[in-house]
Amino acid sequence: MNETSPDRQWRVPPGLPAAKVAGAVLLVALGLLFSDGDPIRLALAALAAAALAGWAVRDLVAPVRLAVDPAGLTVIRGFAGRRLLPWSTVEAIAVDRRPRLGLTSETLEIDAGNSLHLFGRYDLGATPEEVAAALRAARPNA
Description:
Elements: E1 8-11, H1 15-34, H2 39-61, E2 64-69, E3 72-77, E4 81-86, E5 92-100, E6 103-111, E7 116-119, H3 121-124, H4 128-138
Antiparallel strand pairs: 1-2, 2-3, 3-4, 5-6, 6-7
Helix pairs in contact: 1-2
């Protein structure tokens, strides 16, 4: 990457956490509507809503999933941590395409030797193919 080019980062689209929170609220509402006094149905709806809300919190706390700079790649680790992958450890950058039910899903794969990092379109806010091309172009001695 030349010195004049800025560092890049890819993040969760801004509307996605709001959609997840709305889904959690909808789950609770449906649980209340269809529980018919059954506490187990309501508890299951609340549990699913809590999981979805937790997923939304992760999107709000750590929206940047992948960043690139001259030192290497910074990837999300765990719930909201970060990990720097120096360029020397990045063995491959690939896009995995899999057809399923008439649709094709794409996943960006970053192979760092002893770890594999996977990112989908909703992790990156862009297509994995676009991000892979940008990462390959940013890699020193590409």
